[in-house]
Design a protein that fits this description.
Distance between the termini: 55 Å
Largest sheet: none
Radius of gyration: 17 Å
Strand content: under 5%
Length: about 160
């Protein structure tokens, strides 16, 4: 596999972030920063994004670093919006979107790295241009779009009941 110690740490924390996001989606239909699974997602994602900046398979600044910075900005904006929760229900739409988009973006390198490394001797995909990676990412994009629309509609109903 050829992972550095930083790469191993990054991967383990990233897996925890992904699992906690999935748990939050199952329980609440969104990444909910008010509960433990949402908090774990937030903190693990921050650590994962920061550690990704120290990892470079090809040397130097690369698209993976751009993803890390964007993901970090998205979760920090979502956290800021979460803190402004009282009396500002419209910001919940943006909070939900930022967290979901950060999750979707984190899955792009995750899919690429996983499919090009697993199983060890005969990975499922040869490289980033493999059709399996493209199809998997397309499915994730569709799920992200559908999920975002459902989150928006659910939050709209919540906002109407809180502020009729």
């Amino acid at each position: 596999m050829g992972l550095s110690n930083l790469g191993i740490f990054h991967t383990l924390i990233g897996i925890i972030a992904i699992v906690s996001a999935i748990v939050s989606y199952i329980k609440f239909g969104k990444i909910n920063l008010a509960v433990l699974s949402g908090k774990i997602y937030f903190y693990c994602t921050v650590v994962t994004a920061l550690t990704a900046l120290g990892i470079s398979k090809h040397g130097g600044f690369n698209p993976g670093h751009v993803f890390s910075i964007l993901i970090l900005v998205l979760v920090l904006v979502a956290y800021f919006l979460y803190l402004k929760k009282i009396g500002n229900n419209r910001s919940r739409h943006f909070e939900n979107f930022c967290l979901s988009f950060s999750f979707f973006l984190s899955l792009i390198p995750t899919v690429n790295e996983t499919l090009t490394r697993v199983p060890l001797k005969h990975p499922l995909a040869k490289d980033i241009s493999d059709p399996l990676i493209g199809k998997t990412l397309l499915i994730l994009l569709i799920l992200f779009i559908v999920g975002s629309v459902l989150q928006f509609l659910k939050q709209k109903r919540i906002n109407l009941t809180v502020n009729p």
